[in-house]
Amino acid sequence: MTQQSPVGLEAGEPSPIGATWDGRGVNFVLFSAHAERVELCLFDASARREVARLALPSYTDEVWHGYLRGARPGLRYGYRVYGPHDPSAGHRFNEHKLLIDPYARALAGPLRWSDAHFGYRVGSSRADLSFDRRDNASLVPKSVVVDNAFTWSGDRPPQRAWRDTIVYEAHVRGFTMRHPGVPLNLRGTFLGLASPPVLDHLSRLGISAIELLPVHAFVDDRLLGERGLRNYWGYNSIGFFAPHSLYLSEGNVHEFKSMVKQFHEAGIEVLLDVVYNHTAEGDQRGPTLSFRGIDNKSYYRLAADPRYYDDATGCGNTLNAEHPRVLQMVMDSLRYWVEVMHVDGFRFDLAPVLGRTSKGFDPNGAFFQAVAQDPILARTKMIAEPWDVGADGYHVGHFPPGWSEWNDKFRDGVRRFWQGGDGLITELAWRVAGSSDLFQHSGRHVRSSLNFVTAHDGFTLSDLVSYDSKHNEANGEDNRDGSDANWSWNCGVEGPSDDPRVLALRARQKRNVLATLLLAQGVPMLLAGDERGHTQYGNNNAYCQDNSVGWIDWMPEDGDDDLTAFVRGLVALRRSSTAFRRELFFHGESLADGRRKDLIWLTPDGNEMGEAEWFDGSRRAIGMLFGEEAVSRERLFAIFFNAHDADIPLALPEHESGWELLVDTAGNPRTDFLAPLPVEAFRLSARSLAVFRSRAAT
Fold first, then answer.
1. Which of 145, 219, 461, 601 qualifies as a cystine partner to 75, CB 3.0-4.6 A?
2. Which of 220, 255, 385, 463 is catalytic?
3. Catalytic, out of 10, 95, 220, 349
């Protein structure tokens, strides 16, 4: 039987963590192993005026809890947590700071920057060792109690097989802000993203999964605001359960569910780019918004001197996924987005952080073990960004079975090959054949390689062929930010050009890159807008450009309809045959009937590559011959890549039925690649790619 506390809260239950409405009231639970007292602060509907402050009456197994009878969904609240302010020991409690519930399902109100958000006196000679007594409650977002009930009406996840998956990386806001077919009041929101014209575009392209840049609640950096910019990409999380409020047209979290439902009805999966590696609180000089003030020593990985943070993220702090309660929070968050919000998978930003231990990265660490045995997450897609910025942070190919990984070696290998460098045919061959050198272990299959050439971080495809150097001046960092290793080529003119020869070469290079990506073995990922020729004007780090730089322009005169149709045709070709969608790696060995090898590498004269050809650094052309997986008598495909500046006469390998041309990136940009052209002799144009299929037996 629950007991009534002197301050009006009943004892409640110690689980689940967060604010849970049961129809009669709300059970509030907050983890803090080192707090001495926790107060629940309640606010009016405007989220501005504090109307009550109640001490959580019970402390069980390091969680504080209490039950507020009569409380209902929509209630605005926050916490004040009392404890030692001793940064040298890793403790940064400050009861003067209203704190966001880490498990909040929604947030109300913006973060308005002020020195009052900092637990120390900004400008003090004692820096973060000082103590600030100002109240920040009027300036911080309030946590909101949410009712999870939603009418899904038989929603069923598409559950696309990995071999049939084509990922499309998009930004919720940037994708729709300039779309004339999306109602003005829905632009930049989840509902706008799920509007009919957007779904029609993605469906016609043949996209099977949309991967959304961070949608968890995040805040804008103070310094960006002072420069008139925003944290556009959203890699600055402050809540792992709440959708970002800017993406809600009317502030209702069910809008996210409506979006997912619409995507599922269109047969498209929804993947989330998630940031469980750090939070928006930064280093020891950062604000106290949530985790730091709740239990700094538990939530974060601290350095040998616990005043400071072990920063493996480049963002000032690193979440401590080794701590059982922090690991529980991450797992609870993932399950929430799958069970309650119906998402289909996740891409983990700086994923090695989640496997970091005191001895370094461990692919068998607690987080990966928890994911492997979780029956809810077992049916979802798990994608790792397999690097972080800490020591020993690069781990492409080192993730456990069941994971797919962003393959930056594919990105760089394809870029360098089409840039026109020498000695790159071996690297290209590894990448387009599925990168078995990286992933063929522990029973992993071809889908382990998530192939991409462009992503949110870096040049767009149009800029990749239009700029030799980054142009990030608009970011306000004197062009120091962003990578200098772009492997790009401007085709003779830096930036915009009206030279027909330059424009034609750029168009061909874009087709080369897209064909290489979409016809390679592995799971392809397209960057939103690349199919329309979207440019960021040479900015390769548009993380703060919530404007025309980052937004896709959908006006007909600004799009490349031919390129869009080209992508549509490539996707259709990929789907037409499992030859482009293998599950198992090539082995270069004869098939069971002995008729041919599963993969043969060809010289332009139609012969199999020999050792001398592989070691000839001047070669910039190569072909590959392959067919359906584990099928002995079927139609074959041959792809030839030519990065030379000159045409090459091509001799196709002998085949009893002859060959037909499907794709020629140097010719008229046809789009119906399933209506082939008969071919007897062929000249492979400079800087081009061609795809052939053996004719059907008569």
1. 145
2. 385
3. 349
